[in-house]
Amino acid sequence: MLKRVETSELRLGMFIHKLEGSWFKHPFWKSKFLLEEMWMLEALQGSAVEAVIIDTERGLNNVPAREFAVAGDVAPPPQRGMPLVPPRPTANKFAAARVATAKEFGTARKIAERHSKLVSRVFLEARLGRGISARTVDPLIDDIYASVQRNLYAFNGLLRCREDSEETYRHALATSALMIALARQMNLPADATREAGMAGLLMDVGASQETGGPPHPEDVWAGAKTDLETDAHCQHVLAGHALLKAAGDIPDAVVKVCLRHHERLDGSGYPHRLSGQEIDVLSRMAAICDTYDLLVAGREGRPGLDPAEAIRHMGEHCDGLDPAIMVDFLEMVGIYPIGAFVELRSGRLAMVVDEDHTERALPTVFTFWSRPLEKKVKGEIIVLSQCYGADEIVGIAQLGGLDLPPLGALRQALLAAYTRAAGA
Fold it and tell me: What is the pTM of this model?
């Protein structure tokens, strides 16, 4: 049985059959889903959707509402006076409704594993000159978006701490999640957020052994670049742009990002030396997300930077990056992102495993080494925002000379240990 229910009367456990009005009015990309988490309920009640159609046979039916017949899959027309543009949700409201990071790590891991073959196939087919369809990557974008909705930090934090993914595909997944999270932080509408995620996933689709990939940001900042109009690095941008443009159903905004994500506001980028307002917002966002992930992940034998060090590094070399978007990005990833190694006043070393959206300088950390004892210690979860000064971060940890595994393996082991300790 189908019923029309005001959004103010919705309850967890109801099955949404149809959302009234255009999908641009709400934060969901699917019209049929089980309302099973509080963030979903709050997001829907905070949107411009005044009423929905619920299916009482697939979910709860505990509020009185008018029943009506639905012909096929068509809901009643939206009421007059419904606003055309929904109120933008605040970043704090989004963060407050999130799922615990440790719990979301498990879901994020399943998403990455489930779609790894899809990403690999998309890039392989691109290298073979075959077409790319937006429909092919839609399920992956949906899953990443849902994960970021549940928890702003978990998906990218997980990828930062994993070593078992091929570099190009890991970068695609990580950049997609960063773009979606940044779009949420900037309160962009649902359609732009979706395009941001797709752009992050596909913008390096033209990279291959023949075309070369993007140069490492530190090389560019140091001036170690050739004439970029003829450089092999430039070719991956042009090749990817041609592939996406030929696909036919890739949004124009995504195609532009593929071409422009290495352009810089000061005109120092490529392939067309665009500057200032010539560069669209999504491409400016992509320049920041791409740079950050390349710094953290490393490439071509160059070890990645600690996430907190990467943030500091970008602050010193961001002349060509949009300063206003950089503020949103730093607010989104935090001062000490998940995966950062920090030193505490107690002399213990720890890895950041969660962030507090209200106290960005006081994340949750997981200890693993004692400077005073000069040895590994049993991991302890410390919520710095709740320890009332008993301990605090004094700086980024310097791990040179310690008897520790490679940093990538160390991050992966510590994340697994933290997840077990948190009972997730």
Answer: 0.72
